[in-house]
Amino acid sequence: MTETANPAAASKAAATGKGLKIERVFSTEGVHPYDEITWERRDVVQTNWKTGATVFEQTGVEFPDFWSLNASTIVTTKYFRGAVGTSERERSLKQLVDRVVKTYTKAGVEHGYFATPADAETFEHELTWLLVHQYFSFNSPVWFNVGTQSPQQVSACFILSVDDSMESILNWYREEGFIFKGGSGAGLNLSRIRSSKELLSSGGTASGPVSFMRGADASAGTIKSGGATRRAAKMVVLDVDHPDIEEFVETKAREEDKIRALRDAGFDMDLGGKDITSVQYQNANNSVRVTDEFMRAVEQGKEFALRGRMDGSVIETVDARSLFRKISEAAWACADPGLQYDDTINDWHTNPETGRITASNPCSEYMSLDNSSCNLASLNLMKFLRDDDTFDVELFTKATELVFTAMDISICFADFPTEAIGQTTRDYRQLGIGYANLGALLMAMGLGYDSDGGRAMAAAITSLMTGASYRRSAEMAAVVGPYNGYARNAEAHNRVMRKHQAANDELRPLHVTDSEVHKAAVKEWAQVVELGKVNGFRNAQASLLAPTGTIGFMMDCDTTGIEPDFSLVKFKKLVGGGSMQIVNLTVPRALRKLGYQPEQVEAIVAYIAEHGHVIDAPSLKPEHYEVFDCAVGARALGPMGHVMMMAAVQPFLSGAISKTVNLPSSATVEEVEDIYMQSWKLGLKATAIYRDASKVGQPLGDAKAKDETKVIEKVVEKVVYAPTRKRLPKSRQARTTSFTVAGAEGYMTSGAHDDGSLGEIFLKLGKQGSTLAGVMDAFSIAVSIGLQYGVPLETYVSKFTNLRFEPAGLTDDPDVRMSQSIMDYVFRRLALDYLPFEDRAALGIYSAEERQRHLETGSYEPVEETGNASELLEKHEAPQKPVAAPTELLVEDDDEAPAAEARVAKTTAELLEQITGTAVDSPLCMTCGTKMRPAGSCYVCEGCGSTSGCS
Predict the structure, then answer these.
(1) What is the C-alpha separation between 709 and 666, in angstroms, rounded?
(2) Are 190 and 325 part of one and the same domain?
(3) The Ribonucleotide reductase class II vitamin B12-dependent N-terminal domain covers which part of the protein (predicted)?
(4) Which of 420, 464, 610, 756 has the greatest number of beta carbons closer than 10 A?
(5) End-of-domain residue from the set 288, 317, 347
(6) Are 121 and 261 in the same domain?
(7) Which one of 121, 198, 286, 363 is the catalytic residue?
(8) Residue 561 in contact with residue 415, Cβ under 8 Å?
């Protein structure tokens, strides 16, 4: 049994008739949660996969046996306190959870939250049970600081303010620096600062906010965030009617041009490169705060006024469409600025009498008053999926109210970086409960992320979560009082509660499961409105959707925040060392939910393991493809699929959503404009976009992708790209292959350059003079000329394999036994004849000998490990020696290593690059050297849990 701190205080609360009754739902009466778990000892060793150097080592750490190696590694390296190798160093998850939970329980008792000592003990057990079973997690600062000698900072998100005075501007630098030093990020709006087109009282001209951004950017780039190596997380906002708005919009795009010029001159301009510090404005996300007035002016093609900061007078007028175009062009070129929709944000503001919402935290999910903070926690949605693939409404509701209670208690003992932030947070008690694993949940339930069913389910869950949180907030207000700023904002706060309720009433469930969730949400919102009238509310805000990068790994989540699944294949660390490729475990569960038989599931999973996607998977119905759509890959979700999901859940969040809408490199400025315009019309509070390969400082996955990026950049810079033709020698090596596809006979002759690379093909099908023969002659000439002008053979192979038309069926080629068309056969044969193994393997093309070897050894190449792929997959959870991945493919290393050297994939992002032959545009982790993957509006490393800027 655990100790309950200060029972006298709890007894006093009971004597006054107040205090919360805590229901025991998850834990067992008389049994401590730790005693229900099998614990095991593990050694955590972390190396930099690029250099091979050991960056961390702690042996004998204790974790539940069902926690993955990845989760235990990240918790050990990130959250255990004390110097490694000393007796003060934490060495068990029990110590970490006790350090946090006992602090929360003690504060809850001291501040009168619990009706009896028994309720306090139940609270402690329930919270412990949820944490060790990975049902939720607090944000990282809680694990860093709570229960230690450090200041008890629990918030990850801060909003600062700056006024039009040198004293305020210098104080901004100071406050931001201390926040960065503590490992957190901050955002602020610079629109109060006079523009460079306005006069100072002394008669001179003002510097303008963009000028002062330089000093703040230098500070952020100098201070190591949290004492680590990642850059600071920072948001800068400027109102669209500020006279310096065009300079602000174009600032980062101009710097990106400078980066390209320096890169081409030989300087190291990658993210974290030694020369990147010579350019400015790279340490912040920039956002323009647009109004409904401006967006309507864009629609109507009207003029828009830019106003002085001191008296609101019109400084100049601009064409709204022209300014909107400049915003979109800059975002297309360098991913900044994003947009924040001011009127929408403030229409859902519960405290307008105190002040407007002018800014956000760095990832745009926390939007509240200036000089405020928010502590976050996220629920793992997959934990609430029953065995019959329905959502457990009751357990989800109970978990939400318990976690929300704990989050509010933390404000009672928390420390803050400035007194102004501390006062605002204590007065308004902003909380940010959210969730992770939405993408995995929808897939497991057989719902497409970009489908009406998927959006309806996500909306219902979000509505239930926020409704249960505000209902609990009203219950806590009856016990410990409403937040201090409630009285002056009561009417506005209750108006927003009715807006949430009305949005919930407009939901139209499409399935039995989301109907059950929606009915529960209806009841919650009815209680919110009624209890709020009587009790008020303990918290000014309740919910938002954060990136959940590091804590997502702590909970063993497949997907982060609101994100869809990243890819259908993932990279899994093995207990005892090593790693291997597996297909996401959500996939077979989804297939069973959709009605596929075990042998069909096995065949589809095997196909996905080889190809990385579901297109043409055996037995899989095309109408089910959408269930398996992911963020990247062959069936990557379209940009509006992301926007529509955000729009579905936004009406049920107090704050906003951390998410970036990813676009392919081929996307146009017009597409960016459409996303920004549709986001406004759909009621989003903020939108950010990222076009693939738009930033130089994002290392790409392979040389081919780098070459493609250079071509794109040349087009952007209006430099004509003029390919040259490499003709074949007069006398060259040739190969003639006869083939049969479903009884149709044909001949293919291929000619090669002196280096053995393919330079021409001739196809003979049908009788001479027939239409088919003529078409094949023309096709052969077109492909041959393309090859001689430098089109890679692998490009043709990726485009023409899996092309389906008659004749299709059995062939007489032992290496290509089945073909979906003559084109499918021809380019598979060419790949086998002319492409190296690494390139063929990335496209899923193997010879008969290689496939036989895979059946016998589990690898297409000779490996030491024995056993087939199924046996290796069954062994992956048990302690063992490192195993080679069944499809562990080699790729060329980056430019710093000789081309002959090769390295294996170490993360899901790298694995997907190998399978698909395309690049994932993400930075390399500065801690362990592996490629990161997107998480919300930042990036997270699967190897060590580091993030690119979000806690």
Answers:
(1) 11
(2) yes
(3) 43-134
(4) 464
(5) 347
(6) no
(7) 363
(8) no
Instruction: Please indicate, yes or no, if residue 144 is contained in any of the structural domains.
Output: no
Question: Which of 495-504, 551-560, 808-817 has the weakest average pLDDT?
Answer: 808-817
929-938 residues labelled b (16+ CB within 10 A) or e (exposed):
bbbbbbbbbb
DSSP 253-279: HHHHHHHHHHHHTT---STT-TTGGGS
Q: Which of 175, 365, 524, 563 is catalytic?
A: 365
Clarify whether 584 is annotated catalytic.
Answer: no
Residue 224 confidence (pLDDT): 53
Query: Alpha-carbon distance 591 to 138, whole Å?
Result: 33
Neighbours of 199 (CB within 10 A): 12
Domain endpoint, select from 93, 114, 133: 133
**Predicted local distance difference test score (pLDDT) of residue 317:** 97
Residue 183 and residue 156 in contact, taking contact as beta carbons nearer than 8 Å: no
At 31, the amino acid letter reads: V
Same domain, residue pair 120 and 169: no
The verdict on 856 and 921 lying in the same domain is no
316 within a domain of the structure (yes/no): yes
pTM over 0.90: no
Residue 114 lies in a domain: yes
* Tally of domains in the chain: 4
> Does the annotation mark 145 as catalytic?
no
Q: Where are the alpha helices (DSSP H) in 55-110?
A: 69-78, 93-110
The H or E element that residue 237 is part of is: strand 234-239
CATH (domain of 290): 3.20.70.20
Element (H, E) at 432: strand 431-436
Residue 872 domain flag: no
Q: Which of 70, 189, 351, 361 is catalytic?
A: 361
Which pair of structure tokens corresponds to residue 677? 């315009």
Q: Is 351 a catalytic residue?
A: no
The three-class DSSP label of residue 707 is helix
Are 325 and 193 in a shared domain?
yes
Of 626 and 929, more confident: 626
Please state at what angle helix 639-649 crosses helix 669-681, rounded to 10 degrees: 10
| Cα radius of gyration rounded to whole Å, the chain | 29
> Same domain, yes or no, for 62 and 207?
no
Tokens of 284: 């912040």
Task: Tell me: do 181 and 52 sit in the same domain.
Answer: no
Tens of pLDDT, residues 505-563: 999 999 888 999 999 999 999 999 999 999 999 999 999 999 988 899 899 999 999 99
Q: What is the C-alpha to C-alpha distance for residues 945 and 201, in angstroms, rounded to an integer?
A: 50
Distance of CA 413 to the CA centre of its chain: 31
